[in-house]
TrEMBL record:
PANTHER family linked: MEMBRANE TRANSPORTER PROTEIN MJ0441-RELATED, MEMBRANE TRANSPORTER PROTEIN YTNM-RELATED
GO cellular component, one term: plasma membrane
Organism: Sulfitobacter undariae
UniProt protein name: Probable membrane transporter protein
Signal peptide range: none
UniProtKB keywords: Cell membrane, Membrane, Transmembrane, Transmembrane helix
Domain of life (superkingdom): Bacteria
Length: 303
């Protein structure tokens, strides 16, 4: 069933969009990521303009993250205090990110730069996560306990706060900086930032993996919601019809994903997430490097 998307100005199969939302929702519930790192490139692949994909993809992330976080609230694996600190940085970052995005769009370079951002970030993050996760699995098989860093430069920073759910007493500066960085990425790339947030919370802040997923989703809801509002009111690239179809699939998928995630080991989840990130990165890199079937095209811009 073909449906016309008024802002994207393309016709797409409605069931395909519903399915994409469902797949990304499952990933959201399993890994604690908003799924935008996968959703936005998938929208590129089916012909949605990158500027519309970035702004509208953020809408779907809000719904799938909200659905996923409800499941984590039931299990009491959400650190609200840590989520609030990350959120403070995230809202400032999202505002800066939308300003950068609008500037790039005024130069006419936003489509290429968004794709380049994806290839670089997904390649680095996916590679690091994959290597680390394989090492963790190898250590588990040998019966070694993963080394827990008790002292790092982060523990010496001022403005300390106690995060009881995470069992931490650390400075608020690193979480605010992580939130700020992820907020900028959310606005420019249409991602929830979970693929950076989750590893940063585990390896930099030292949070337990079971708490990381729910806390990451909690923060993602508000930052992506705020980003969507900014995109909708400043550059008018949020396609409501596209968002609605992705939302329905995402909400259902997130509940399924949360149930699957509970039954899997943290190390297995991280390996799977790393592989997904690398696959999407490879596909995007090929699209940028290979000569397109139509060498010349006429683009019509304007709102």
């Amino acid at each position: 069933m073909q449906i016309y998307l008024p802002i994207a100005e393309v016709s797409v199969n409605a069931f395909l969009l519903f399915g994409l939302g469902g797949i990304v929702g499952i990933l959201s519930g399993m890994f604690g990521v908003g799924g935008g790192f996968l959703m936005t490139p998938l929208l590129f692949f089916i012909g949605i303009p990158p500027s519309v994909a970035v702004a509208t993809g953020a809408t779907q992330i809000v719904a799938s993250s909200f659905s996923g976080v409800l499941a984590h609230f039931k299990r009491k694996t959400v650190d609200l205090r840590m989520g609030g600190v990350l959120l403070a940085g995230g809202l400032v970052g999202a505002t800066l990110g939308v300003m950068i995005f609008n500037y790039l769009e005024s130069l006419g370079q936003v489509d290429l730069l968004v794709k380049l951002f994806y290839v670089i970030f997904l390649g680095i993050i996916g590679g690091l996560m994959f290597v680390e996760s394989l090492n963790a699995i190898r250590n588990l098989k040998k019966g070694k306990k993963p080394p827990r860093k008790k002292h790092s430069p982060i523990h010496g920073l001022p403005l300390k706060m106690r995060f009881r759910v995470s069992g931490l007493y650390i400075s608020v500066i690193p979480p605010v900086i992580i939130g700020l960085f992820v907020g900028i990425l959310t606005a420019i790339m249409g991602v929830g930032g979970g693929f950076i947030m989750v590893p940063a919370m585990i390896y930099l802040l030292g949070m337990p993996t079971k708490v990381v997923v729910g806390t990451s989703l909690f923060q993602i809801i508000f930052v992506t919601g705020f980003t969507t509002m900014l995109h909708a009111t400043t550059n008018f690239t949020v396609d409501i019809v596209l968002a609605l179809l992705l939302l329905i699939g995402g909400v259902i998928g997130a509940q399924v994903g949360a149930r699957i995630g509970v039954k899997m080991k943290a190390e297995q989840l991280r390996v799977l997430l790393a592989l997904l990130v690398l696959i999407v990165c490879g596909k995007l890199a090929l699209e940028l490097l290979l000569q397109p079937s139509e060498v010349y095209s006429i683009a019509t811009g304007g709102h």
